[in-house]
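FAQ

Q: What does a record look like?
A: Structure on top, sequence underneath. For example:
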């Protein structure tokens, strides 16, 4: 009998692991229900303002093909200009199920689009208390013979705290939806200090409006 029990135990553990894996995958792919929570979260992106403080935004449309590849249910994409001094940056936020939204960071999608990674990505903390942490990396390419460089910050959130995650797919699997944000600043004609000041100032002004629109009245279920 002890030998039989020893043979059965590994089988039972294996079945439990298979079931648990199937449950996690089912949650991530909405196998057992409509993605109403995802759609509601995506609609909240329409409430994010494009004018605040010294910043004014102009919409940048994302092609439908790219949205399908990303499996995004909605997006927010703006090119912002500082109305006082003309500084510029761009913001893109994607919303969808955690599985697909957690993958394809700039180190994958930017490089796949022809950008070269110039620095090793590193997590940074913003001065704004609403920010949390995001990854930072620099990318460059040559377009029409002209070198172009950008600095991009990216992170994920489902609860109002933006996070630089090492394993985003595993660390966000419990949420019904997920947002991924990119903040990109032109680097070609600016020093590293200028880029940091621009990003910090923008985040300090933008994040309270962003988090109010996305999270204030809609805490996620886990």
């Amino acid at each position: 009998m002890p030998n039989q029990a020893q043979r059965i135990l590994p089988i039972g553990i294996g079945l439990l692991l298979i079931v648990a894996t199937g449950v996690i995958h089912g949650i991530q792919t909405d196998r057992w229900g409509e993605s109403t929570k995802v759609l509601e979260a995506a609609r909240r992106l329409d409430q994010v303002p494009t004018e605040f403080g010294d910043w004014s935004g102009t919409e940048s449309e994302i092609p439908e093909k790219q949205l399908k590849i990303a499996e995004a249910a909605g997006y927010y994409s703006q090119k912002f200009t500082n109305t006082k001094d003309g500084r510029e940056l761009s913001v893109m936020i994607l919303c969808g199920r955690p599985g697909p939204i957690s993958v394809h960071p700039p180190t994958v999608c930017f490089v796949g689009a022809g950008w070269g990674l110039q620095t090793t990505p590193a997590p940074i903390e913003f001065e704004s208390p609403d920010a949390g942490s995001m990854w930072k990396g620099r990318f460059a390419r040559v377009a029409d013979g002209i070198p172009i460089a950008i600095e991009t910050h990216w992170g994920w959130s489902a609860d109002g705290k933006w996070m630089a995650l090492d394993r985003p797919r595993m660390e966000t699997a419990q949420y019904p939806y997920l947002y991924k944000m990119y903040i990109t600043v032109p680097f070609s004609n600016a020093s590293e200090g200028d880029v940091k000041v621009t990003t910090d100032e923008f985040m300090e002004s933008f994040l309270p409006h962003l988090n109010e629109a996305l999270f204030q009245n809609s805490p996620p279920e886990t």
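Q: Is there anything notable about this one?
A: The mean pLDDT is 84.
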